[in-house]
Amino acid sequence: MEENQNQEQNITSNDAILTEIRDLSKKRLFYQKISTCCIAGMLAILLICVLVIVPKVNATIVKVNGVATKAETTLDDVSGMTESIVKASENMNKLVDDNGSNLAAAVKSLSEIDFEGLNKAITDLQDAVGPMASLMKKLGGGR
């Protein structure tokens, strides 16, 4: 009988252990389901982000490359314009240097003109031509 009791106790304690193992397994399964759902949710969010963001990033990179190409072309054009301006200023300096003495001589000649004498000569010419013009007018008007 004692042996029967020991066996029943063993069976009862084995049943209790198996019940605890089963309960722990159920809890572990529940938490694994929750963590699996969380991982699946994060994966779905990551997938959506990749599908939405990657094309936008790609389009942005293409636009940035286009702008960079245009900027490079513009810088080349500006560089060419700068070289042209430098050449033009050098040519202008050369022109001023070459013609500086001629311009100075012309200005000096203009400053030496006797404007009073020129005005007097014009007045004298008008006085001399005036009577002749009147005479021609009278001769031409008599026809």
What does this structure look like?
- It contains 2 helices and no strands.
- It is rod-shaped, with a radius of gyration of 56 Å.
- The chain has 2 domains: 2-112; 114-143.
- The protein is mostly helical.
Topology diagram in text:
Blueprint: H1 2-111, H2 115-141
Q: How many structural domains in the coordinates?
A: 2
- Number of contiguous helices: 2
Structural class, from helix and strand content?
Answer: mainly alpha
- Please tell me how large the radius of gyration is: 56 Å
Q: Quick check: average pLDDT?
A: 85
Q: How widely separated are the two ends?
A: 179 Å
What's the helical proportion of residues?
A: over 70%
State the shape: rod-shaped
Order of helices and strands: HH
Q: How much beta, percentage-wise?
A: under 5%
Q: How many strand segments? A: 0
Largest sheet: none
Give the tags.
single chain; 143 residues; mainly alpha; 2 domains; 96% helix; rod-shaped
Summarize the structure.
This protein has helices at 2-111, 115-141. With 143 residues, the protein is mostly helical.
